[in-house]
Amino acid sequence: MRWYYVKPHAAVSQYYLVTAAVIIAVCGSARSDTTGGPSFSPVDITVYYESLCGDSIQFVRNQLVPAYRDIGSFFTVNYIPYGKATHGKYVSNGVEKWHFTCQHGPQECYGNKAQACGINDILTNPERTKKQQDLVNFVGCVMQARNPSTAVPQCLQTIGMDTQHVSLVENCISSVAGDELLAAYGDKTLALQPSLSFVPTITVDKVYSQEDQMGALRNLTATVCKHIPEYNKPLNCSG
Ligand SMILES: *[C@@H]1O[C@H](CO)[C@@H](O)[C@H](O)[C@H]1NC(C)=O
């Protein structure tokens, strides 16, 4: 028996508790061609995932990290740590507060927020120049940790973030700044067309297709390769 929250309408801030006897598998700079040929943009991969989802953990470990190792310069990844969650604002004693619910409970919301803060720091930190490499290392570290919801500070150290930035991220996690980042990821997730049904959901060049979704879960390298123009296909795409 599992409990999860269903938010019937984005604008309705009332949550219905629903029982489900069965868990469906819901949780389930452009690189230019310096040889003079036409330039192309890296394939855009966006991953909608959540911190305590087994399928998200497997995708990061078995697809994302290896694909980045094989053909990392041919794609960029956007990470959207939110998944099947809900968010809304309510007013308590005249103060507005964010409220989140997550498929795997409050720990997962905390973990998603922590990753949102870590990702934001990497993206905005001028000292981190290899942002894509940082992000794949960071998310790879967090999602493969024993407890992904609390692994963020340690993983930032692992990728070489200085202690000052680690404390900035810790402040973000425990402040409204983290709530705002997570809510923004929620808005991006709710804007998905068709709406998110499986976690992780993967879009290619901002578009969802069932073929690419299934393909990415099976072999992300091959799926990215499919979207690289013939003239630019790396050797790792054949095989
Ligand atoms: C994934 O696809 C790549 C590129 O086509 C191929 O080289 C690789 O062997 C595939 N991996 C698996 C596990 O099938």
Task: Give a topology summary.
Elements: E1 2-6, E2 16-20, E3 43-49, H1 54-71, E4 75-81, E5 85-92, E6 95-102, H2 106-124, H3 131-143, H4 152-158, H5 163-173, H6 176-190, E7 201-204, H7 210-218, H8 220-226
Would you kindly provide a written description of the structure presented here, covering whatever features stand out?
The chain has 239 residues and is an alpha+beta fold. The protein has a single domain, classed as Glutaredoxin. The chain contains eight helices and seven strands; from the N terminus they run βββαβββαααααβαα. The strands form three sheets. The chain has a three-stranded mixed beta sheet with strand order 4-3-7. Strands 1-2 form a two-stranded antiparallel sheet. Helix 1 runs antiparallel to helix 3 and helix 2 (106-124) packs across helix 5. 2-acetamido-2-deoxy-beta-D-glucopyranose (NAG) is lined by residues 219, 221-222, 225, 237, 239. Keywords: Glycoprotein, Secreted, Signal. This is GILT-like protein 1. It is found in: Secreted. Belongs to the GILT family.
- Residue windows where pLDDT falls under 50 for at least 5 positions: 1-25, 29-36
The name CATH uses for the topology is Glutaredoxin
By CATH, the superfamily comes out as Glutaredoxin
Radius of gyration: 18 Å
Rounded mean pLDDT is: 88
**CATH architectural category:** 3-Layer(aba) Sandwich
**Main sheet: strands, sense, barrel:** 3 strands, mixed
Structural class: alpha+beta
State the end-to-end distance: 43 Å
Strand order of the largest sheet: 4-3-7
Following the backbone from N to C, one meets helices and strands in this order, namely EEEHEEEHHHHHEHH
Family: Belongs to the GILT family.
Protein name: GILT-like protein 1
InterPro entries: Interferon-induced_GILT
Subcellular location: Secreted
